[in-house]
Amino acid sequence: MNIQLPENFSYDLCLSFLKRSPREVLHRIEDETVTKALSINEQLVIFQIKNADKYLNVDFLNLSGAASVAIENYTRAYIREWFDLETDLKPFYSLGLKDELLKDLVKKYKGYRIIGQPDLFESLVWAVLGQQINLQFAYTLKQRFVEQFGERVNHNGIDYFLFPQPKIVSQLTDTDLLPLQFSRQKSKYVKLIGEAFANNAVSKEALSKLSFDEAKMELMKIKGIGNWTANYALMKTFRYPNAFPLEDAGLHNAIKNLKRMKKKPSPEQVKRIFKKYKGWEAYATLYLWKSL
Q: Which H helix or E strand runs over 37?
């Protein structure tokens, strides 16, 4: 199966994001090939992505015969969403080339796209896991969590993992999570997110029908999800172009470094800077993060 690529797509730059940690447990990368498992209609499917110039070539590894139309369609839609292939970056580059802060970044990282998290539950839990700790320890927590509570499918002696299901997470206790080095607060928040999804109090489908502000308010009703986490999920799962984590320390450091400021900008200064990027706040954030 082939997936046509849009203009302004860099496989290498997108792979650089997917390679951020050797502890990443939800996909494997070897020889520039990405391998991942999905649950499709209750069937565990392993697919592999290779770059083929203007296409992504996708193979299915663990099926006894040819992939069904349903499996192909689901996987194609997932990959297009994962790599943000629907977004036309030309307007963003036109804006960025005229901006002192972004002009060098959009040249250097042309084709870099927001690698999303199509699963809203995964996106929220991952954001909570990363709160107030460094990125590598967040990946360590994620690896332990997924390997302990997620489904796995084996192919040629290699286990491929899926993110734990909300129902399972909702039933976990501190006894399950604290030995993984979760703080009591993280343990509590992750369980509450699991309960919200297991009880259908929140869902990607329902939130997708709301406006940006309404969706953010609904997410923030869940204890442990503040403005930063809600914006992160709206950026990574719903692709709202105006979503950006205003309070993000990395974003502040990127602006400080690029503008050669003596101290980090205040939230008000960041707001003023981002007024110029209206409609492209998420991509401006992505490229500023990439500068770090």
A: strand 33-40
In this structure, the chain runs to a length of: 292
Q: Which of the four CATH numbers 3.40.50.1110, 3.90.550.10, 1.10.340.30, 3.40.50.300 does domain 120-150+163-236 have?
A: 1.10.340.30
DSSP-based three-state secondary structure for 155: strand
pLDDT digits (tens), the chain, 292 positions: 999 999 999 999 999 999 999 999 999 999 999 999 999 999 999 999 999 989 999 999 999 999 999 999 999 999 999 999 999 999 999 999 999 999 999 999 999 999 999 999 999 999 999 998 999 999 999 999 999 999 999 999 999 999 999 999 999 999 999 999 999 999 999 999 999 999 999 999 999 999 999 999 999 999 999 999 999 999 999 999 999 999 999 999 999 999 999 999 999 999 999 999 999 999 999 999 999 9
Residues identified as active-site: 248
In angstroms, the CA 249 to CA 120 distance is 23
Query: CA 61, CA 147: separation in Å to the nearest integer?
Result: 21
Any bridge partners for residue 155, and if so which?
A: 158
The fold adopted by the segment(s) 87-114+241-292 is Endonuclease Iii, domain 2 (1.10.1670)
How far apart CA 88 and CA 6 sit, in angstroms, is 8
Tokens coding 51: 């770059």
Alpha carbon distance 243, 21 (integer Å): 25
> What is the crossing angle of helices 135-149 and 120-129, to 10°?
130
Model pTM? 0.95
